[in-house]
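Lab channel / #folding
Pinned by the channel admin:
"Please post every new chain as: sequence first, then the structure tokens as a reply. Keep commentary short and put observations after the output so the thread stays searchable."

First post following the new format, from NK:
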Amino acid sequence: MASVETLTSLAILKVNIDQGGDYLDYLRPFILQVLVDQKPDPVTDVAVRDLIRAQFGLEIPARTVQIVLKRISRQYPLKREIGVYRITGTLPNPGVGVQKAQAERHIEAVVSGLMEFSKDSGKPLSTADEAVAALCGFLGEFSIPCLRAYLCGTAIPTVEGKEHSQIVLVSDYVLHLQRAEPNRFDSLLVVVQGHMLANALLCPDLQQAPKSYKGVTFFLDTPLLVQQLGLEGDSKKAAVDELIRLLHNLGATVATFSHSREELEGVIRGAADHVNVVDGRGSIVMQARRSGTTKSDLLVLAGRIDERLVEAGIGVQETPPYIAEFQIDENIFEKLLEDEVAYFNPRAREFDINSVRSIYVLRAKTSPSTVEQCRAVLVSSNSAFARAAYNYGQNHEEWRDVSSVITDFSLANMAWLKAPMGAPSLPTSEVLAFSYAALQPSKELLDKYLVEIDKLQKQGRIGERDHQLLRSSTLAQDELMHLTMGEESALTEATVTETLRRVTNEIKKEESEKLSAERTAHCETQQALARERLAKSRMQERLFWSCRRRARWCARGLFGAVLLVLVLGIIAGFGVRVQTPVVGWALMFGSAFLALAGLGNLVVGVSLKNLCDSVEAHCLAYFLRNEAKVSGIDLEAP
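Reply from TO:
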């Protein structure tokens, strides 16, 4: 039978899912509160994560914060601009601070009353921390009877003497409150709800859940290794380290292929060669300049790669050999990559293809339907690369359920939702207070929680693994929202077992439809861009050749005029005499021009052809500039 913590947490989560929510909705009031209180500008996932840690002591990954911020932006004046959010209006105040202060007064009243009550016992509680610990120990086993007593008016059962002495003490105190101090008993119910909601938020019972990624090896690609080494800044390194920690906690193996390790060393040495070059570019080079990392620092790091990877918990596994039976069609996959990813270095494409075909070899003779069943997965920060790998698997291989490549963003959120959040760095009484303040349910919802708890107790088949699956399933929201239409009064009668089965069956279909829509939109965008480029190219060609023709006619006109003058000069050279003064002057001018042209050709090598070519080039440039101003199109020779 599941523990009380699992029963209550699963019941609360199930009711919330049945009403169209999910676990991430628990985080919304905390994020809204720091946005209202601190008004960060700009609003970034890292900044909000740090504010939540400072104000509430909660450790929420930046990538998860990003998902919740996106949800909030759909409802409230929070606009995304250039990769960050900005508050553009008045956000609703969830009032966590005010509610927390009220909850703290209730908790303090219960704690002080328990300390006073304990003075007549054999082991009085001397500090507030001892009293809070005793209350939590009691509620860890008897929060459900307390909730039932509040909602249904039933009596709280008496705890037998065989129980822990402090649990017996708190039990006697609770019975005393129910009989003699109804006002303070109401305060006790705030503690009960705070305890239940804190468990639902922090999920300590997931410590006992099975290591769901045991037997799975996640291979990091080269860009993630670069980030883990801190070569693209501290924030990216922290994100990768957090992902590795989550995967290890879930029993996974984190590694990289030997060819990726080889590529990593080449990338670092290449950056070292360019860090002092004026036109050196690349994320590593730019970060090195910002941080003052020198060429020698990078070369030393390149020589210590294996040591640094071991320190980070990343193993290096030999790249699998080529086995014809399990190989992918590299030509087809390369074409998909060309459509999705712009590679500046052709070798990088070869390494990526090698990584994907290695995953196929390691998954030989298996057909996994979930990540937990995969033997190997490649993790990349490049969503276009992951999309190309998914498209290849959908169209050319039998593994359509789980792609060979997933992004670090998706994996980090999946892993975090499968693990407990961890105890905040705050006193327990404060955790109870802010959990109650942020998540306090209506009495109607409390009734539904109790109904769900009773149903789960009767089933007797619910455990930590079910809580883990329902918490980490982002499709559970859509599944149960379809049944309940998001109304509190329309709670579905489906059992958790049925819900889990249906969610599992929908995972493949939903993911396939989502990525298919993305692929279609991407293809349409590419086609539109191609049409636009083609139209622009044709316009450029038409205008260019029009300018070219005009410039050529100008040059030919000049050629004819000069040729005429030269012919006149030649005629004058033969001593021809004419009676007409105008013709005489023309012959004299032609003779002089012929002499100057001959001298110019002798001294500087100027010929009539060179002169005409130069005039044609200058006329072409002039016409192109004018056309560019008129049409607004940059014109270049095709």
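NK: The mean pLDDT is 76.
TO: also worth noting, Residues 272 and 297 are 8 Å apart (CA to CA).
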